[in-house]
Amino acid sequence: MRKIVLTYGLIAGAILSAMMLLTLPFMEQIGFGRGEVIGYTTMVLAFLMIYFGVRSYRDQIAGGNVTFGRAFKVGGMILLVATVCYVATWQVVYYKFAPDFGAKYTAYTLDQAKAGGATAADVEAKRAELDKFSALYRNPFVNIAFTFLEPLPVGLLHILISAGLLSRKRRPDDATA
Predict the structure, then answer these.
(1) Residue 66 to residue 72: CA distance in whole angstroms
(2) Interatomic CA distance for residues 49 and 12, integer angstroms
(3) Which of 66, 85, 73, 79 has the alpha carbon at shortest distance from 144?
(4) Which of 11, 12, 104, 176 has a Cα at 20 to 30 A from 57?
(5) In sequence order, what are the beta bridge partners of 168?
């Protein structure tokens, strides 16, 4: 099981990390809004490895039968490996190559608020909120925690779908089938 989890988890992590590294230099041209779409689309595609990993486990190790719980566990471990790769890549990128990310994101968010018709008081309140978050985000432990949470919903959805589709348990009356 370890080989399958590491293989598919590292493939998914490599996809996530590579796309992050490829898009970061063009973030100003892409924009934060489109960057989010690209990022979450990449997560959806990368986490297809959960399906393939669970299927590989079912077919190669579990003899063609896997329970929902075991499929969920294998998928969760693949998600964990991929997410650790994603988080590690972001830590290097954030602290070495994009330490001004918070300032750029704050400027983008405030521009969006102004374009949306926010009052000057609303913009200042938003600026104070974002400045507080940026200060908090500079703490590596907080940064790691938030970064770890980003792909979690997408990955959990993939785990649930994969476990549901791939789980099957041989019934005693199907022993000859």
Answers:
(1) 10
(2) 6
(3) 85
(4) 176
(5) 66
